[in-house]
Each structure stands twice: as C-alpha cells, then as structure tokens.
Amino acid sequence: MAEILCGYTADRDEILVAYLYGEINPSQRAAFEVHVASCDRCRHELADLERMRTRLQDWTLPETSRLSVLEHSSEESPAPGPSSGRILTMIREMPAWAQVAAALLFLGVSAGIANFDVRYDHDGFVLRTGWSRTPASIATGASPTATTAAPWQADLEALEQRLLTESRAASSSAREAADSSADADLIRRVRALIQESERKQQNELALRIGEVARDFDTKRGTDLANIDRSLRTIQSDTGIQILQQQQRLNYLTRVSLQR
Amino acid sequence: MTWTDEELVARSISGDQNSFNELIKRWERPIYALAYRQIGREEDARDVCQETFLRACRSLKGFRGQAKFSSWLYRIALNLCRDWLRRERRTPIVQPPEDIDLMDLAAAREPSETIEDRVARRDFGRAVERAMALLPEEQRTAIVLKEYHGLTFQEIADLVGCPLSTVKTRLYQGLNVLRRELTRSGATAAVR
Fold first, then answer.
1. Cβ proximity of B3 and B11 under 8 Å
2. Which of A131-140, B168-177, B182-191 ranks highest by mean pLDDT?
C-alpha cells in the first residue's frame, strides 16, 4: 500500500508528540490542528498513538506488598517504630558488638600511639605514657599490706564475680522480654503471610478459571465450525450423488422407452 | 500537617529520622516502579529501590535543592538501573508468565470488570512489557518517565541530561516501535 505523504513543514515528529501529550504552545497547537484536519496520515497516526497509550496502562507492576526499603507492609500502622528497619537506623545504630569492637579498637590504637604503661603493684596504681620521661603516679590507692605476689588478685576476683552475677541477671530478664516480643511479632507476620497467600490463591484460581473458560469457548467455537463445515460437505456430496443417480435413471428410462 | 519533600529533607538533615522515613514511604513505590520497568526483575528492582534510598540518605546533606527531591531521587535510581543493565550486559528481562504474579490485576480492578476483561488486560500488559524490553534504553526511559510517572518533557530532559527536542524524538521513535511491535505481536486491536 502506498504511504500517505504528509506535507507538514515544521518538525512534524516533535510537534506530533507535543500535541499527543498536550505540551504544546497555543500557536503551534492551532497550526497543527489545521494541518491534521486535512492530513490523513497525521490523523491516523495520532489516533493509533492515543489508542496505544491507553494500552500502555495495562502494563501493571507485580503485586508487591513488601518493599525491602521499609520492613513493614502497607497494611501495617504507618507510625514508625524503633524495631522497623529504617534506613537511618541501619546506618546510625550499629549492633552492640560492633560498637564494643569499635571502642576497643579505638582504645587499642590510642594506647599504642600513646605507649601507655599501666601498673598495679605494691606501689599502688601507676599510669605512665611513652611521652613521660619518669613514671607518673596518677592515682595511688592504699598500699597493700599483704606481701603476696599479686595483691590485686582478690579485688579482681571479686569484681569478676560481681560482673558475672549482674550479667546473668540482666541477660535472663532481657531474654524473656525479647522472647515474648519476638513471638508476638512472628505470629503477626505469619498471619499476614497466610492471609496474603490465601487471597492470592483465590485470585489465581479465578483467573485460571477465566482462562479455561475462554479456551473452552474458543475450542468449542472451532469445533462447531468444523462440524458445520463437514456437514455442509457431506450434504453437498450427497446432493451430487443423488443428482447423478437421477440422471442415470432418466437415461435408462429414456433408453428403455426407445427400445 | 503534610510536609513538602523539601521540608522533610531539611528536617532529615537536622537529625529527624522519621522525616526520612516519611520520604521513603512517599517515594518507594514510584522508585520501585521505575526500577522494575527499567530492568524487569522484581528482586533486582527491590535492590535498586533500597540502594537508591541508601545513597540518598548518605548524600542527603549534599542535596542543595536546585532540583526537586523527586528528580534527584529519580536520577539516583536511573543511574543505578543503568549500572545494573550495563553490568549485566543485557536488556530488560521479561519474566516468564508463570513468574508473573497473576493476581495484581485481579485484585486491583474494579468489581464491574469481568474475569475475561482481566485476562485480556493481563495479556495486553504482557505484550506491552515484551515490546518495552525491545526498546533502546534511552527511549524506554523517556516513555517510562512520561507515561508512568507523568514527568514533563523538560523534567525528563533535566533528568537524563539531554535537549528537550531529543526527549520528544526519543518518545516519538519509541512509541512507534511499540506500536509496530504490539501490532505484530497480536495485540492488534489495541493499536489499530
């Protein structure tokens, strides 16, 4: 088919797109509308593109109830909670172990740079840096009266016991609280997942049924058309055979009458 | 009270974490949609979406407000999509039908729509997705930003860094490729 020519002198493609999306200045619009009224090619192209733009809206996104940016689904309360995985939380709130490790690393590096020397002996508690020419006694506690090799041993053991006791008490109470909170959260998430899954299955079933019904209708229509065509063929063949038989009978009758 | 994006950015910079969370809630869907339509894979689109907000958060203090926050965010996302496409050295992926969530249409449409309409609409959607995957990246970007995000020609030009006339040309060429492909692939009724 011969292509219809368009005699629009301005930059046709750009003007057409601008007109299509309504982003065109009034004078260009008026001029283009005058042209379109007399140009079949532009009119048809515009109509096609308009229809296609409608079709483009059929491309929808897959259903995504949870985006990974925020760890709550859209059905949940929009109020931000401290446990929801917020971006700023991820960046600003490091895990406790990471904070401790960072602090220890910092202290170690600092001590290495300053060349710290910490001593606790019969002379008491002594802190000295590499920059100090003479030992500087920063804090001197009561001098130990005992003459044992490790006068700080008893203090250290007492401190260790106390830390252990406090640590156990704190961890058991924290674990209980965390367990109950985690259970409730888990149950809520599981329920949400089950509900979502059920809804999806119901919808999927409906769509599948629709597809099957459509396929069935198409197949039935094709079969009916085939049957109809076959019947017509048979009827046609039968009619021809009957006609031929009649012609033969007529011939025989005519011949017998002549004799 | 509803804050503007720029107000939320200012509050985020001054340390209000909830303001940035509000920006995420406001823009995560559009950014995810943009990423999905650019690269065609749900998981990777989610990754791009998350990375977009991470980068935005890290460089929020560098946001001077010359452009709209959304444009700035779109630009980050588009750059990430471009990196992804180049890294993977492939065109956008059209997921096979069994991987497409069949429910998105069924759940979202009006009750008056029949199941046949939904099936047909989904088929058209797949045809559009396949045709879009055939477009060159710059044409696809222009069409996605125009059709699905409603940006103006000028906004698209600013975003992708090209002249206004180039945006219109890319749109025109892309739309015509789509028209041909949809006609050829059997979605003829849609465009003829």
1. yes
2. B168-177
Please, which residues bridge with residue A126 across strands? Answer: A119
pTM higher than the cut 0.90: no
Whole-number Å distance between alpha carbons of B163 and B157: 6
Q: What is the 3-state secondary structure of chain A?
A: CCCCCCCCCCCHHHHHHHHHCCCCCHHHHHHHHHHHHHCHHHHHHHHHHHHHHHHHCCCCCCCCCCCCCCCCCCCCCCCCCCCCCCHHHHHHCCCHHHHHHHHHHHHHHHHHHHCCEEEEECCEEEEECCCCCCCCCCCCCCCCCCCCCCCCHHHHHHHHHHHHHHHHHHHHHHHHHHHHHHHHHHHHHHHHHHHHHHHHHHHHHHHHHHHHHHHHHHHHHHHHHHHHHHHHHHHHHHHHHHHHHHHHHHHHHHHHHHC
The model's pLDDT over B100-115, given as tens digits with 9 standing for 90+, comes to 454 554 555 455 666 7
**Each residue's pLDDT tens digit, A150-207:** 566 777 888 888 888 888 888 777 777 777 777 888 888 888 888 888 888 888 888 8
CA distance A232 to chain B (A): 31
Q: Measure CA of the first residue to CA of the last residue in chain A; give whole Å.
A: 68
Residue type, A21: Y
Is the CB of B94 inside 8 Å of chain A's CB atoms?
Answer: no
Contact yes or no for A48 and B191 at CB 8 A: yes
Distance between CA atoms of B160 and B78, rounded to whole angstroms? 8
Cβ contacts (< 8 Å) between A60 and chain B: which residues?
104-105, 108, 125
Of A23, A48, A56, the CB nearest to B153: A23
Cα torsion through A94, A97, A99, A100, rounded to 10? 170
Task: Note which residues in 23-82 of chain B have CB less than 8 A from chain A.
Answer: 24-25, 28-29, 32-33, 36-37, 42, 46-47, 49-50, 53-54, 57-58
